[in-house]
Amino acid sequence: MIRDRLLCCAFALFLAVLLTSLPLFAQKITGDISGTVQDSTGAVVKDATITAKNIGTGETRSAKSSDAGFYRIVELPPGKYTVTVSVKGFKTATRAAEVAIRRTTGYRPPQQRT
């Protein structure tokens, strides 16, 4: 009887600890960079290559803009980045960006024709 009660309490305690720790696993420790690539007239630019380079580590991640000009580079470690946008027929655009935990850094690079 006492053994059954102890076993039941131990199981209930285990279950309580497990359920209260689940939100810890859902915490995001990275950030994203996203935006829409447009030319100087405001028209979207598709198939542009967007590269984010972490200044501290040198790690690079890239994405391509969609038919709507949208791009998103996800799961970036927090830090300072150099974001470069290049596409054939346009000048390359570069700027600094900072990625923070659980944040999306917006960047809408203006593209000028070469």
Molecular structure report:
The chain has 114 residues and is α/β, with parallel strands linked by helices. Helices cover 21% and strands 40% of the residues. The protein has one domain: Carboxypeptidase-like, regulatory domain (Immunoglobulin-like). β6 and β7 form a beta hairpin. The N and C termini lie far apart (84 Å).
Could you write a compact summary of the structure shown?
The chain is 21% helix and 40% strand. It has 114 residues and is α/β, with parallel strands linked by helices.
Kindly, what is the distance between the CA atoms of the first and last residues, rounded to a whole number of angstroms?
84 Å
- β-strand number: 9
Number of domains: 1
Can you list the strand order of the major beta sheet?
4-3-6-7
Strand content: 35-45%
Give the mean pLDDT.
83
- The CATH homologous superfamily: Carboxypeptidase-like, regulatory domain
Would you tell me the structural class of the helices and strands?
Answer: alpha/beta
Question: The CATH topology, please?
Answer: Immunoglobulin-like
Radius of gyration: 23 Å
Q: Output the CATH class name.
A: Mainly Beta
Tally of individual helices: 1
Shape: elongated
Sequence of secondary-structure elements = HEEEEEEEEE
Q: What composes the largest sheet?
A: 4 strands, antiparallel
Parts with pLDDT < 50 across at least 5 consecutive residues: none
Percent helix: 10-25%
List keywords for this structure.
114 residues, alpha/beta, Immunoglobulin-like, four-stranded antiparallel sheet, three-stranded mixed sheet, 1 helix
